[in-house]
Amino acid sequence: MTCVVASLPVRSIAELNERIKRLRDADLIELRLDYMHELPPVDEFIKKVEDFKDKTIVTVRDVNEGGVNKISESSKADFLKAIYKEGIIYDVEVRFLKRNIVPYENMIVSIHYFDYLPTFEEVRNNLSSYANRALVKVAVIGTGKYKQLLARVLEEFPNSAVMPMGVNPLERIAFSLLGSKLIYAHTGEETAKGQMYYKDVKNILSYFNVECEKLFPNPRL
Ligand SMILES: O=C1C[C@@](O)(C(=O)O)C[C@@H](O)[C@@H]1O
């Protein structure tokens, strides 16, 4: 069922450990490292998240898909490869994978559409290469027949997460009940339009007995 992801903007790793501790009631914690101007040294980062590795998702979001700061692709690729060895889950874009060789098995492979609503065929063509070995994720702007599109993605890809952006946040609850594996929520500062506060999401989903299941039950080969 659905895991609630508390999405945390990270502008400095100085107090990161303390900030994560305050989110211990979230199922998963997304660390949006693109809020920093450059990525931290990997060993320093690992020390900060060591105690929470099993509930951390690292995201260095591309500026063309909602990211805040431009991070060099080579440093992003090196950082992801380094944390992969530490067993940390990260979110990597389909478009990034088309330009860079980084592992994606048992990771989150995502695609975001802010400017237009894609056809289902376009989404399927982008995700089908990854869907058997990763959790595929689609975020779209809430325009046109976006509900039908996202519902179809959930039907086509059992291990997926979908979210509409810029619409009533309650719609994300509906997609959770339709099978989205993840629901992204804010911790006080939205990282995308259309998020609810993560504690409110946890509270609502508890009324439906929605539990978070381990994202990747089969350990890496
Ligand atoms: O990809 C996503 C989904 C998201 O854009 C949202 O719509 O909640 C928020 C991002 O932080 C996350 O990486």
From TrEMBL:
<dbReference type="GO" id="GO:0009073">
    <property type="term" value="P:aromatic amino acid family biosynthetic process"/>
</dbReference>
<feature type="active site" description="Schiff-base intermediate with substrate">
    <location>
        <position position="137"/>
    </location>
</feature>
<feature type="binding site">
    <location>
        <position position="195"/>
    </location>
    <ligand>
        <name>3-dehydroquinate</name>
    </ligand>
</feature>
<feature type="binding site">
    <location>
        <position position="172"/>
    </location>
    <ligand>
        <name>3-dehydroquinate</name>
    </ligand>
</feature>
<protein>
    <recommendedName>
        <fullName>3-dehydroquinate dehydratase</fullName>
        <ecNumber>4.2.1.10</ecNumber>
    </recommendedName>
</protein>
<dbReference type="InterPro" id="IPR001381">
    <property type="entry name" value="DHquinase_I"/>
</dbReference>
<dbReference type="Pfam" id="PF01487">
    <property type="entry name" value="DHquinase_I"/>
</dbReference>
<dbReference type="GO" id="GO:0009423">
    <property type="term" value="P:chorismate biosynthetic process"/>
</dbReference>
<feature type="binding site">
    <location>
        <position position="61"/>
    </location>
    <ligand>
        <name>3-dehydroquinate</name>
    </ligand>
</feature>
<keyword id="KW-0704">Schiff base</keyword>
<dbReference type="GO" id="GO:0003855">
    <property type="term" value="F:3-dehydroquinate dehydratase activity"/>
</dbReference>
<keyword id="KW-0456">Lyase</keyword>
<keyword id="KW-0028">Amino-acid biosynthesis</keyword>
<feature type="binding site">
    <location>
        <position position="191"/>
    </location>
    <ligand>
        <name>3-dehydroquinate</name>
    </ligand>
</feature>
<dbReference type="InterPro" id="IPR013785">
    <property type="entry name" value="Aldolase_TIM"/>
</dbReference>
<comment type="subunit">
    <text>Homodimer.</text>
</comment>
<keyword id="KW-0057">Aromatic amino acid biosynthesis</keyword>
<comment type="function">
    <text>Involved in the third step of the chorismate pathway, which leads to the biosynthesis of aromatic amino acids. Catalyzes the cis-dehydration of 3-dehydroquinate (DHQ) and introduces the first double bond of the aromatic ring to yield 3-dehydroshikimate.</text>
</comment>
<comment type="similarity">
    <text>Belongs to the type-I 3-dehydroquinase family.</text>
</comment>
<dbReference type="InterPro" id="IPR050146">
    <property type="entry name" value="Type-I_3-dehydroquinase"/>
</dbReference>
<feature type="binding site">
    <location>
        <begin position="30"/>
        <end position="32"/>
    </location>
    <ligand>
        <name>3-dehydroquinate</name>
    </ligand>
</feature>
<dbReference type="GO" id="GO:0008652">
    <property type="term" value="P:amino acid biosynthetic process"/>
</dbReference>
<dbReference type="GO" id="GO:0046279">
    <property type="term" value="P:3,4-dihydroxybenzoate biosynthetic process"/>
</dbReference>
<feature type="binding site">
    <location>
        <position position="7"/>
    </location>
    <ligand>
        <name>3-dehydroquinate</name>
    </ligand>
</feature>
<feature type="active site" description="Proton donor/acceptor">
    <location>
        <position position="112"/>
    </location>
</feature>
<comment type="pathway">
    <text>Metabolic intermediate biosynthesis; chorismate biosynthesis; chorismate from D-erythrose 4-phosphate and phosphoenolpyruvate: step 3/7.</text>
</comment>
